[in-house]
Amino acid sequence: MNGKTRRHFLLTAGAGLAVAAASGAGLRAALAADKIKITDSDALLVIDVQNCFTPGGSLAVKEGDAIVPLINTIAKSFHNVVLTQDWHTPDHVSFASQHEGKKPFETIQLAYGTQVLWPDHCVQGTEGAAINKDIDIPQAELIIRKGFHKDVDSYSAFLEADRKTETGLAGYLKGRKIKRVFLCGLATDFCVAWSALDARKFGFQAEVIEDACRGIDINGSIAAAWKQMTKAGVKRIQSSDLALA
Ligand code: VGL
Ligand code: ZN
Predict the structure, then answer these.
(1) How far apart are CA 118 and CA 161, in angstroms?
(2) For helices 24-33 and 3-21, what crossing angle results, to 10°?
(3) Buried b (16+ CB within 10 A) or exposed e, 8-19
(4) Cβ-contact 196, 158 below 8 angstroms
(5) Which of 35, 70, 100, 176 could bridge 243 with an S-S bond, Cβ 3.0-4.6 Å?
(6) Does domain 37-241 have CATH number 3.40.449.10?
């Protein structure tokens, strides 16, 4: 082998080794090393996966039920899981039916700011407010209900729409030494986004699992929500970014 041929042989052999190392078990290990590992100081927040928000419900989110199997799979890797339930009085201020001449998806001004008006949904104790029957997360340790004050809405699982009244979730998570929350559920542009933004406000790391959420999308509200979340330091991830059990 002359010098030139030998150098060519070494380069070729070297490239072959690199390919071998990057395939099969080696590749799987290399990719797994990059994935997000879930620990006991993490919690999964499963936001509002309720009958009213899934197809057939009064405020149905497109494909709202399609995320249920994925949420169940993701939840298996978490020790700490909190579910939320939108939980309104029958005469709730966020219902268009309570405002003469107003239709769903119009807005009104309330003392705490602009309120979108919705079809009646998630009324306390009704079938529409129940968690989707296919959600299978037996280890879930807390169900936090929100929006139960007649005159105040609460998209956020942390803070009501007056931006003052706490639901108690931040205190609970701090008491449990949780540092980071992962969010999934409904709807990306309302309850998921507001909860993720408030998680940051209360000092938690927050990561939204995009493919485990679905949105309502009123006049570009999904894109606007992502923009706001990114600005606030909320990470936008996919379920494939997680090191799942
Ligand atoms: C929600 C609108 C009204 C949500 C709740 O869960 O995103 N959206 N109430
Ligand atoms: Zn609501």
Answers:
(1) 15
(2) 60
(3) eeeeeeeeeeee
(4) no
(5) 35
(6) no
Q: What tens digit of pLDDT does each residue of 17-40 get?
A: 445 455 678 887 777 789 999 999
Candidates 49, 121, 154, 214: which one to mutate for ligand 1, based on the most atoms within 8 Å of Cβ? 121
Distance CA(207)–CA(178), nearest Å, equals 14
Tell the burial category of 70 from Cβ atoms under 10 Å away from its Cβ (0-12, 13-18, 19+). middle
- Ligand 1 pocket, 117 CB below 6 A? no
Domain map (residue ranges) of the chain: 1-34, 37-241
Could you tell me if the CB of 225 is within 6 A of ligand 1? Answer: no
Give the pLDDT of residue 33: 81
Query: How would you classify the pairing of strands 180-186 and 205-214?
Result: parallel
Task: Count CB-CB contacts under 10 A for residue 29.
Answer: 10
Following CA atoms 123, 126, 127, 133 in sequence, which dihedral angle do they give, to the nearest 10 degrees? 80
Chain center to CA of 202: 17
What is the value of pTM for the model shown? Answer: 0.89
